[in-house]
Structure formats: C-alpha cells, structure tokens
Amino acid sequence: MQSSLKTLFPNFSPELIATIEENGSAQDFKAGTILMRTGQYIKNTVLITKGKIKIYREGEDGGEFLMYYLQPGQACAISMICTAKSEKSQIMAKVTEDVSVMMIPLQMMDKWMMEHRSWYEFVIETYRSRFEEVLEVVDNIAFRSMDERLEFYLKRHSDSCGCSEVKLSHQEIATELNTSREVVSRLLKKMEQRGLVKLNRNQIELLKTNFTN
Amino acid sequence: MQSSLKTLFPNFSPELIATIEENGSAQDFKAGTILMRTGQYIKNTVLITKGKIKIYREGEDGGEFLMYYLQPGQACAISMICTAKSEKSQIMAKVTEDVSVMMIPLQMMDKWMMEHRSWYEFVIETYRSRFEEVLEVVDNIAFRSMDERLEFYLKRHSDSCGCSEVKLSHQEIATELNTSREVVSRLLKKMEQRGLVKLNRNQIELLKTNFTN
DNA sequence: CTTCTTCTGTGATAAATGTTACTGTAGATT
DNA sequence: AATCTACAGTAACATTTATCACAGAAGAAG
Questions:
Q1: Which domains does chain A possess?
Q2: Segment B132-149, tens digit of pLDDT
Q3: Nearest Cα residue in chain A from B124
Q4: CA B173 – C1' C9 distance (Å)?
C-alpha cells in the first residue's frame, strides 16, 4: 500500500510521499458512488490509486455529458483548482470501477505547492493536461457530427483500457454522449457495415486496423 | 503607464509590480493581429492592460469556435499553463480591439510562483475561472440548442461591454458560434418577434427586460 | 422450459440545423 | 446620381439528429 503511491506517482519526492501518507486518508468507494455533485463544496483533493472515476457535466434536464475519466496515478484537477478557495464544484464525479483514493485536505494544497517542488509540478501538469482534454471535448461537439464523436469515444475507451473490446451497452454510450440509444444503435450498425467494429451484446469489438489512423 | 498595472491588477504586491515592469515588455497590437496559432510554441505569458483578445478553437476545416475573450486585468491561462514546459498552444488568439499587453518570458513563471504569493494566487485564480468558463461553453454546446446558445452569446457580449447594443453582423456571430449566417438571421428574426431584441444593420439591441433573467 | 427483463434493430416521422439560391436595402465609392 | 458591396431576409430543400413505436434476441430468474 505504501509503495503504491511511489509507483503510481513516480515523480513525487520521497519526502512528499511521506507527507501524503501522513496527512492524507486512504479510502475506498464502490462503483456507483457519487463522489462529487454539481454545486457541492469541495473539501479535499483526490489522488486515485485504483479504479476509475467518471467526470461529467450534468444538464438542467438531468442529461449528462462525459468530460473524462480519472485513473490511477491521476488527480482531480477540478478539486485542486477549487480547493484553493473552497469553491463549489462545477462537475459530477462518479465511481465507475471500485476505487481507492487518497483524500488530501484542502489546507495542504497551498502549503505543499510552496514546499514540494514535485507537488507543484504535478499540479501544474494536471491542470494543463485536463484543460487540453476539455478543449478536445469542445472540438468534438463543436466541429464533429455524431458518427465521428462516437468513433472518437470508442477509441478513447479502448485506449484507456488497453483492450479492443468496449464493454458497454448502447444506452450507456448514448448517455455519455448525451444522445439517444437509437441513434447510437444505428450509427454502430453503420460502422459494422463499414467493417470498423463487430457488435455483440454489451460489447463492441474494435477492428483496430481501420481504427488507429 | 506604470500605474495602470497597479489599478488593473489590484491584488499584485508592489514588489511583484516592480518585478513585472522590470522583466516584462510592454507591447501594442492592432486589431486583427493573430497573437497565437494552434500548434505554435508559447514563449510568453501575456497580461492584458488594454483592448480585447479573442480566444478560440479552430476546426480542421477552418471553422472557428469562440471560447472566451480576454480583457484588461486578465491573463491568458493557456499561456500560463503551457509556458511551464514550453508546450504547444492548443488555441488561437486574435486581437479584436487594439491591445496593450505585458509580455512575460516563460522563465519568470515558475520563479514568481515561488517568490510572489500574489502572483501564485493570480495564476491559480486565472486557471480556475477559465476552466469554469470552458465548462460553461461545453454545457452550451452539449445541452442547448442554437437559439439558446445565441441568446447566451448576446447576453455575454452585452455584459462584457456593459451596453445593450451588440455591434456585430450576423456573419460574425455565425462564425463565432460555428453555424451559418442564415441560421443566425432566422433565429434573430424570431427573437425580434418575441420582443427580445431590436435588429438594425450591424447592430442588435437587447431589450433588457426580457433578457436578464 | 417458461417467463421476464434488458438489450438491440429498424421503420416512420418530427424537429433542428445546414445549404442553396435569390431578393432587397443601406451605406460607401465613384 | 449611378454603381458597388456588404449586410440582411426568406423560401425551398437536404441532412442530421431526436422521438415514437414496435419486434425480436440474449440472458437471467423462476
């Protein structure tokens, strides 16, 4: 357990790791748990050591829209940003695979930024990469049509799990793209006809050759 | 000129202001100048002291999509983020009203973060507010239809200039929302019929009463 | 095996948005 | 005044996406 921080966050200095273990509290959450809601105040920064957390935006009508996933070795950029002034969360965070996290009280943030170079760099890099990711999301909805967005979504999923099978129902995909199940079914069918995927119940197999370009 | 920094960035400490004036270089740019292109390397952080800069994303087909405007007293969050590692820009920055800026070489960033508390806080706050703004943009395209987005766009414009007349052609609006001029014309006409706006050549007057809710 | 539930496929139709094509008008230019 | 150009209005049509309605198939539960 102690060592997992070291391997997951290889750039952290030994002193920083010690400080984290001293001040943070390790916690586990089951899939389905909602860790953060829109409008809630943020009291902790979260480092993920196991599992997966989905960060998404919720529309007034209850629709949702996927921003990105948090995985082991990553941290929640939003919580870091808001934390500084204990702001309200602008997003929803939901556990999609049982997670283990390190909860770090917000008071530590500013302190460590000054004291630990490796923490400072990690925070900046987290901001940067998330900002970039969100910009890519904007690109997708602003410039691309549903079929392209679907392809991109599947690709991102398979990249993240490292395998070519995406185990999701059409309904789940539709929800994350904020569209309807029928639309997803139809587009997937077309993709199958184009030879891009193979469809099974609750599972979509990406035929990589056509995909990775 | 010296004093403008002080009034525009009231939270900066006197020492920080002195340091900025010492290390930064004041520069002016005419409306229309493109300060940053997608893919370019970033060498400076930019503080705006006069004018307006448009930050937008560019699609492969040349379409554009407005993210937000930078105004006096603000800084380019992207340049701050990327700067840390001299990354490539992910966005376009175009001067829309003649600007004066302070260019700050990227080496200063990290240094000042450690040395000047008020700089650190400014940077964090800039990150936070821009991130929030981008999330709002995502909301708009993900959950709202064109007419709502148009209303939001107009409102934001009038808020930013403090007046109720938006001096833009339908074409310009269409470009920023990445749609076509005809669509904007149609929707504006409908809004006029609903009594929300009054249309003139190159100018849209918001009839506030209905608007500010 | 039978029943139930969830997931998937698909047609028909509606609504929103994009595209094409054309017209008129205001203001600038000559 | 005559001409030109950018801007605005609008109809007709194409395309994309959303919604409704229903049917069949896979797997779970009894």
A1: 2-141 (2.60.120.10), 146-210 (1.10.10.10)
A2: 999 999 999 999 999 999
A3: A81
A4: 41
Beta strands at A34-36 and B165-166: parallel, antiparallel or unpaired = unpaired
pLDDT beyond 80 at A190 = yes
B81, B89, B153, best to mutate vs chain A, most A CBs in 10 Å: B81
Residue pLDDT, tens place only, A63-84: 999 999 999 999 999 888 766 5
Residue A28 has pLDDT above 90, yes or no: yes
With a pLDDT cut of 70, the percent of chain B lying above it is 93
Give the integer Cα–Cα distance in Å for A83 and A108. 10
Q: Provide the whole-model pTM.
A: 0.91
Testing the interface with A: which of B67, B85, B106, B128 to mutate, by most A Cβ within 10 A? B128
Residues of A in contact with B134 (CB under 8 A): 131, 134-135, 138
Q: Say what the pLDDT of residue B213 is.
A: 41
Question: Are A127 and B132 an interchain contact pair (Cβ–Cβ within 8 Å)?
Answer: no
HSE at residue B153, side-chain half, CA atoms within 13 A, is 27
Which H helix or E strand runs over B68?
strand B64-70
Helices (H), A162-180: 170-177
| Spatial contact of B104 and B23, defined as CB atoms under 8 Å apart | yes
The Å distance, CA of A186 to C1' of C3, is 29
Beta strands in chain A (DSSP E): 25-29, 34-36, 44-58, 64-70, 92-105, 165-166, 197-200, 203-206
Other beta carbons within 10 Å of A54: 20
Q: Which residue of B has its CA nearest to A113?
A: B114
Contact check, Cβ <8 Å, A77/B131? yes
| CA/C1' separation A191–D14 (Å) | 23
- Looking at the complex, report in whole angstroms how far the Cα of residue A35 sits from the nearest Cα belonging to chain B: 19
For residue B120, give the nearest of B129, B110, B130, B128 by alpha carbon: B110
Token readout for B66 is: 């407005």
